[in-house]
Amino acid sequence: MKKLIEILLDDIYIQSFIIGLILAVFLSKLSRRTKLNEPPLVYYRFPIIGHTWSFLTDCDKLILESREKYGETFSLYVFGQIMTIVGKETTHEVFRKDQDFSFREGFKNQIPTHLIFRHANLDEKHAKIVKEFVAGKLTHIISRIQKNIIKAIDLCIGECVEPKVIHDPRNTLADIIAIPAANIVVGEECYNNEDILETFNNLTSSILKLLRIPPILSFIHPWLHEQFITIPLRFGWNPISKHKKVILNRIKPVVEKRLYDKKRLGDAWVAPLDALQCQLNDPEATPDLDPNNANYDNIADVICRIIFSAMAATSNGASRVLYDLCNGNELTIDDIARMIKLDSFVKESLRLITPIVGLPRKCISKSCYTFANGYQIPSGRIAFINFRDTDNDEELQGQNPTEFRAYRHLERNSPATKLERNFLSFGGGKRACPGRTFAVNQIKIFIHKILLKYDVRTNNEEIEPKRRYFGPFPLPVNVDLVFENRKEIVN
């Protein structure tokens, strides 16, 4: 009996210690707020839980009501940490201040990309490759993109003399987008292999599985959750391992041949136009043009990063544009054929599928950062962009900003690739998405080719005009689509 009492007492002491530790951490967080002129912390009813439940179940209401009551800049307490939400006046201040706000550090809090892409962790080099290839070479590869989109549509949808129902449109569209994307990333020599296309289609979802682990430990301290979800990564497991192996197996013979041909032919050698070649042009990746010394881990990781950055956004964007067209929004076949109004249509679709809040930036100032409005946040605080504050603003968007208006951006002569205060889908500042030109052009060409060839409608199912969300993230639509050959094709 005495031993039993001692064991029970020990358990009580341990439990008391854990509870005390939790309370100490919680109180220390609150005490730290008194040192700076911080944005107002939105009122919450339940200690420790804070705004977590409202953030997950009705984020839209939480953000809109907080904005109305507390102003453009405010803070929430979610999963054990304070996050600051910045609105339309402060958003571009955060975008411009690279020395004070880091997207890379902010994103690491959600997905540990620094451990996933161990050999391609330099954002500058990754962005340079994308910009150099996409911005510099797009005019030369546009015909290849069109050819491969037509090829992909024929392969994945085919002839529809009789109506054909596609029961999983999002997956079909991802298969279509994977073909032209793979062609200009890994090159003509190996893009068409089934395992490569599967990697382009599935790599992003393999990484996003990490988000399924609920950050319960963050209620004690966010550091504990970060350590917990990275344990497998620190011991060798990686969600992209199988995809990286596929890429390495396919590109190695291509790299060997290209380096051999370049060394043998010299200036007479004509370099292929693809992202892989942009890497091979880097002496650090291919010293002395010797394939035995090539940094294959770096090359493969950069390719994986490009896939992760581009594939899901492009296929989801194409999917949403197609559904918006099926939802009865205005766009005639003449508009599509001449590409006059399609760009505005695409931009409006992309504007309305942004998250409620997103694009986390971590404050990396030495002690704190002082906004132009006078509020201060400490170093280490994550600032989230309030997309709602920009997207729902009538002054920035024009009349009825929450409604889909196909020609909203045509009136301003504002293309979908242009970075503006009223359009945040691709971010802003120096860290804006470097691949936005490629993504937008792929979507436009895809929609153009689809609607010149098919009549597309839903399978007697209505698409809800109101977007649905999980937390701040929009849930994708995946209603059955019916494809039928267009009776009159406009050339």
Structure summary:
The chain is α+β, with helices and mostly antiparallel strands and 491 residues long. The protein has helices at 2-32, 52-57, 59-70, 88-96, 103-108, 113-116, 123-156, 169-186, 194-208, 222-229, 231-234, 241-265, 275-280, 296-326, 333-338, 342-351, 387-391, 394-397, 436-453, and strands spanning 74-78, 81-86, 101-102, 164-166, 357-363, 368-370, 376-378, 382-386, 454-458, 469-470, 473-474, 481-485.
Q: Which terms summarize this structure?
A:
five-stranded mixed beta sheet, 19 helices, 491 residues, alpha+beta, disordered N terminus, three-stranded antiparallel beta sheet
Report what the structure shows:
The protein has 19 helices and twelve strands. It has 491 residues and is of the alpha+beta class. Among the domains are: 1-34; 36-106 and 367-398, no CATH class. The strands form four sheets. It has a five-stranded mixed beta sheet. A three-stranded antiparallel beta sheet has the order 4-12-9. Strands 6-7 form a two-stranded antiparallel sheet. One of its GO terms (molecular function) is monooxygenase activity. Pfam families: p450. Heme binds at residue 433.
Question: What is the secondary structure topology, with strand pairs?
Answer:
Blueprint: H1 2-32, H2 52-57, H3 59-70, E1 74-78, E2 81-86, H4 88-96, E3 101-102, H5 103-108, H6 113-116, H7 123-156, E4 164-166, H8 169-186, H9 194-208, H10 222-229, H11 231-234, H12 241-265, H13 275-280, H14 296-326, H15 333-338, H16 342-351, E5 357-363, E6 368-370, E7 376-378, E8 382-386, H17 387-391, H18 394-397, H19 436-453, E9 454-458, E10 469-470, E11 473-474, E12 481-485
Parallel strand pairs: 2-8
Antiparallel strand pairs: 1-2, 3-5, 4-12, 5-8, 6-7, 9-12, 10-11
